[in-house]
Each structure stands twice: as C-alpha cells, then as structure tokens.
Design brief:
Strand content: under 5%
Helix content: 55-70%
Shape: globular
Radius of gyration: 21 Å
Length: 375
C-alpha cells in the first residue's frame, strides 16, 4: 500500500513538472510576445478565416476575433485567452478521469508522451466542445445541447463532424422526429462544409482591416491557399505523403492505436467501441495528417469518450459485427503492464510536429532540449 501511494505521488509530481513545462512554453509562445514585443497575434493564420472575408470553412474563429476586435481593440488577445482557458479546462477534466483508472507507472509514461507534451495549443481544442453537452447536459433537451455544441465546434474545425459522426448517427436512430430532422440538416450542412471550397473570397479584412491593425500578408501563407483546394486534391496530397513516409510515422501510430485499444477495454468499453474509435480517427488522420499535432486532442477524446456518460452516447450506436469475439479475447489478455509498456513505446516513438519539419526525436527529448535552450 505504501509503495502504491509513493508511486502515485511520483506520478503526480511528474504530471506537475510536465504541466509546468508545457504551461511555461505556452506562456512564452502565446502570452510573453504580447507583453514584451507588442505583437498582434501568436496563433495560426487560419484562425483569421472569416465570413466577412467570404470564407466558409473554419470561418467562425476569424469572425469572432474580428467582432471582438471591433468592440475591444484586442480581439486576437481575447481569442488567445479563450483557447488557453479551454485547454486548461479539458486538460484538468481528462487528467482527473484518467488518473482514477491508470496505474502510476502508466501515468508517468503517458505524461511524458505526445499526449501531454504537445506542440502547441490552437483552435483544434474547440473540437472537444461537444463533450460539454455529453457530460454536463441533462434532461430532455440534452440531445439538442449536444447537437448544438457539435455544430458550434464544427464551424470552428470541420473535423468535429467526423469524430462525432457516431453521435449524429445515434440521433438519427433515436426515432424522435424533431431531433432526427435537426440532425439531417446538420449532417447535410456538414457534408457540404467538408467538400466546399471558395476560390472567390473577397479577403476584405485581410486587405483592408487587419493591415491597419499591424497584421499583414495573411493571404500569402500556405494555410490560405490550402483552404481553397478541393477535397479530392487534399486527399490525394495527404495519402501520397503518408504512403511516402509510412516507415517514419508507423511506430507512433501503431503504439497509439495499441494503447488506445487497451485503454478503452480497461475503461470498460466494448470491442465495438474500439473499432469505432479506430475508424473515426483513421479518417481524421488522412484528412489532417499533421503528424503528432492531434495526439493530445485524440487522447482527451479517448478518455472523455470512455467516461460513464461518454460510453452511453457512443456505445448505443456502436456497430457490432458478429466476429468481434476474437478482439474481445485479445483485449482480455492485456493488463496494467501491457498498457504501461505500450505507453512507454509510444512516448519513445518519434512523432514530428509538422509534416514539413519532421524531427526524428521522441517528444519528451525535444521538449527537454527546448526547455534547456538547446533546441
């Protein structure tokens, strides 16, 4: 008992140390420039996509920033605060649920992996907004609260519709016709949003408003040209890159999916839930392919999906094909040691931050070097 308590204290100290490093790096990246350099923004340029400039995909953040800036003059700074606050909230919620069921050794390896030692905090944190509805909404209006948060998050990052597609499918099968009709409208809009590209944007804010605020040359960035590519071209580019670099990205993906399967099983999820997670995440990976960038989001999604209320939503519509007994039998053989070893292997696997700047070092090593000023 004493050894267990000591090990848990050690795991908690590791978590606090990692949190201090990540929070410090986030402060240096997002807060310090505002205070010392007078910069206007420190996040990705695609957060400036807006309806006022004729954009559609991912245009809600830019519209919010623009409206806030009109009211306060510090729209980008407020949006940065929103992102950091939401990240801290979901980090605390995820860690609380994860810590309750994971062994101390498993916790340490997870804390030292890309699940916690993330590259950056950005608007993809809003992908998790539907869990506010799933975990906290009650009563007859709960389904509409979940649907509303899915729509809100999807307008910020369209891949939300893919990750929460099982929940939307569950609403379609609910036989509550007002909910079914509302869900059909959302699915139709989401399908249009995922394939839509707007080659004739006005860029009114990029050319007229933001340069006066010290933010220029936005439309010259890759993110602005990327959003105008048809979905077919995007998929072709992503699949080509993945096939050309499969030996580099395979270790982290293999250990990630292996650990995810064991964690879902350990947290009383069914084999069908494992397959559903694999399916949605695989589609998301092909559509985004920013190797390593989404691991922290996917870990939060994984843990929150396997909370009691999360399983209620996802298990209800998980497809259960007949030959799943083999998967259940295989997962039954996993134990605390197997999860810890797999988490360690994932932490040691190289996971690059961006496709164009792949760095073949474990995430923990890169963060340690950067914190020491050596990288």
């Amino acid at each position: 008992m004493l050894r267990t308590e000591t090990a848990q204290r050690l795991a908690d100290l590791v978590f606090l140390g990692v949190l201090a490093v990540v929070a410090g790096m986030a402060g240096v990246r997002y807060v310090l420039p505002y205070l010392t350099e007078g910069v206007t923004f420190t996040f990705r340029q695609d957060n400036f996509f807006s309806y006022s400039s004729g954009m559609v995909r991912r245009a809600l953040p830019g519209e919010i920033i623009y409206r806030l800036d009109l009211l306060t003059g510090v729209g980008p700074q407020i949006f940065t605060g929103m992102m950091l606050t939401l990240w801290l909230f979901f980090l605390g919620l995820t860690t609380f649920h994860f810590r309750r069921t994971a062994t101390p050794l498993e916790q340490i390896f997870v804390y030292l992996s890309s699940f916690y030692l993330l590259h950056s905090i950005d608007a993809e944190i809003f992908i998790l907004l539907p869990f506010l509805g799933i975990l906290f909404f009650r009563g007859s209006a709960a389904a509409y609260g979940v649907l509303g948060t899915i729509v809100l998050a999807g307008l910020i990052r369209e891949v939300t519709f893919l990750l929460f597609a099982p929940v939307l499918l569950g609403f379609l099968l609910s036989k509550r016709w007002p909910l079914v009709l509302s869900t059909l409208v959302v699915i139709g809009a989401a399908a249009w949003l995922l394939v839509f590209y707007s080659p004739l944007s006005s860029y009114a804010l990029e050319f007229e408003y933001w340069p006066d605020r010290g933010i220029s040359r936005l439309v010259e960035t890759n993110l602005y040209s990327f959003v105008h590519r048809p979905l077919g071209n995007v998929l072709t580019m992503h699949v080509t890159w993945i096939s050309d670099n499969i030996l580099i990205i395979a270790p982290a993906l293999i250990f990630f999916f292996g650990y995810a399967a064991m964690l879902i099983h350990h947290r009383r999820g069914s084999p069908a839930l494992v397959l559903m997670f694999f399916g949605t995440v695989s589609v998301l990976y092909v559509l985004t392919f920013d190797h390593g960038r989404y691991f922290y989001i996917l870990f939060m999604f994984l843990v929150l999906m396997t909370t009691n209320r999360g399983r209620t939503y996802f298990e209800a519509i998980a497809w259960q094909p007949p030959p799943l007994s083999w998967l259940g039998a295989l997962l039954d053989k996993s134990n605390d040691r197997a999860r810890s070893v797999t988490a360690l292997l994932f932490a040691l696997a190289p996971s690059g931050e961006w496709v164009g700047t792949y760095q073949p070092l474990p995430r923990a090593v890169r963060v340690a070097l950067r914190a020491a000023g050596l990288a």
